[in-house]
Design goal:
Three copies of one chain form a homotrimer.
Chain A lengths: L1 H20 L6 H23 L4 H4 L2 H19 L8 H21 L4 H22 L13 H16 L4 H21 L13
């Protein structure tokens, strides 16, 4: 069940990569590369930092999901109009799930609390950052509604509940719901952190 | 013999970095950095993902080759006009060789077939991607003639032949020739994958 | 004592990230991310390349230092004018210290001399490169006064003195002083390496 949701999240992130790449003139393989990077980038960096085997080399089902979703989205986008908004809700679900899975993996491997919560953030958002850098755009996480913030708050909530000894299933469910709800609420009412109205010249 | 070709490929990729950097105003050390990144970036990412010791730390002959080739190209480019076209053929050879070496290393270390073929693509093209990102240009692999595609097709060919039990030497030779031929043919007749003529707004 | 200086260097690099981010419109969490990346990026890449446990996961005091310094600088920059020049001297100290620590760690883990000196350069400058790429600017190390050059020369000096059997404390002190002095001198008299006045079209 969890594995199935995880594969969906990988596929959704791959599609987000295709949609972003679609605003540039990029060929089919470039699109697949960006789909893979968007879908697998966060978990890959997490595994490298934790010194764990990279998850999509150990089990390449994730690769299948990302490649198939990316190719399907590529051809779908040539036929019908795919509004970016369509993917906002599953993308929020992917963010929530990846962040929670990342934090749990880090805790399991013995990372301390603040580092573990950052692993959650990295797993949730790094794929999108790489996608934006490859497409030569300013990373979305730095400009819009609560995104990395939601992932971080939820990861810290997970760490706190785990520390208090709450049952892992409830902890995960609470943190996933929290991140998803914060992200969707922030999108709906355009809530963001205070911007840097800088005095730096 | 193989080691000698590999060192040549490292040197050629280092020179490609210097030529790219030469279109910007970058100083000598920046040029060496970009040469190193272009020459060693692909193999480094492969080794990190596979959990293997990084090849140029284990054997720094590769460092010597990249640094010497980079410095030589830097000074040569101040004296004579170096056309970018000059390096297209050895660059195609480097792509072919790196992709095949990367796929073989991944298979040897037990990676599954699709992941192993992607290791070949990464080894072949990632140095160039990093070079372009550092020079703040859109990565070439996303825009031009068959490049990563050639590397991926050849890596998949290698995986297939290895699966069929063909002798490793013949397998390598076939895959290297295939990638080189596809790349040169694509350059000569400007063959590319279909572009993304997007319906995404 | 060394640990205290190292924490100061982390904090100073975090502040440099905040100041750079402040020239863009970035929110509070984006600022913290850039502060973390600027402060920890170099040492993280060093540890990944060397196959060592990542230092800020093993000991998250570094995380505390970077987060606290980043948040403090964010709010300080909203209240008072923070000139970028203010941080040039501690930044030079951070560069010197990180480069020496990186080289020493690489030598301790058995890296050969040229690779070890590059680990020093990477530890000293990679955080700043990542910071610039995330902010979508051309990396500073490629354009200005001696920076990576100073770090590399000092790292090579350290390798040489260690090879000659000089006492480690004196070796470190000499290399730190050397890098700091070269950097500050280069800034004061605007000394840089020869630029690439390219014949490449």
């Amino acid at each position: 069940m969890l594995h199935a949701i995880e594969l969906c999240a990988v596929a959704v992130c791959a599609i987000s990569g295709v949609l972003e790449a679609g605003r540039k003139e990029i060929d089919l393989l470039g699109v697949i590369v960006i789909a893979l990077v968007a879908a697998l980038g966060g978990g890959t960096l997490r595994d490298l930092l934790l010194g764990a085997p990279v998850f999509w080399i150990a089990n390449q089902t994730y690769l299948y999901a990302a490649v198939i979703a990316g190719i399907a989205a590529f051809f779908a986008a040539r036929i019908v109009h795919l509004p970016l908004d369509l993917f906002v809700v599953p993308d929020a679900a992917g963010l929530a799930l990846f962040a929670v899975l990342g934090t749990q993996k880090a805790l399991t491997l013995g990372a301390p609390w603040l580092a573990a919560s950052l692993m959650g953030v990295i797993t949730g958002v790094f794929g999108g950052v790489l996608r934006d850098v490859l497409c030569n755009e300013r990373p979305l996480i730095f400009t819009g509604e609560l995104y990395a913030t939601a992932a971080w708050a939820g990861s810290l909530l997970l760490v706190l509940l785990a520390y208090l000894g709450v049952d892992p299933s409830w902890t995960s469910l609470a943190a996933i719901t929290f991140i998803f709800a914060v992200r969707v609420t922030a999108l709906r009412w355009k809530i963001g952190l205070p911007r840097f109205s800088s005095k730096v010249k």
